[in-house]
Design goal:
By secondary structure, this protein is mostly helical. About 50% of the residues lie in helices and about 10% in strands.
């Protein structure tokens, strides 16, 4: 076998059997594609940006609500008989 024949075999196989990488070129069922659409759909950048901003705002809102809850616990700074300061929760005479 000469070098020319070996080169032709490689090129022919590469052109003939070339498939796209990933799952887009794989043989899959319709059910698999319906259950896992993110594997086959091209990424949509505006939708990703919107989702990222939305999740960031949700996490920021949860952090804000947590901070407001801590501030709303009706704590005050008390001083004991030795002059040390500490935080104490306001209590009612009814408790």
């Amino acid at each position: 076998m000469s070098d020319k024949d070996a080169g032709k075999g490689k090129e022919g196989a590469a052109e003939k059997g070339y498939r796209t990488p990933g799952l887009r070129g794989a043989q899959t069922s319709t059910l698999f594609r319906a259950v896992n659409p993110e594997l086959f759909i091209k990424p949509n950048k505006p939708v990703m940006a919107f989702g990222l901003v939305t999740i960031t705002l949700c996490v920021a809102y949860l952090g804000y609500m947590h901070a407001m809850k801590e501030n709303d616990q009706q704590l005050y700074e008390a001083v004991d008989s030795q002059g040390e300061r500490y935080m104490r929760r306001k209590t009612s005479k009814w408790d």
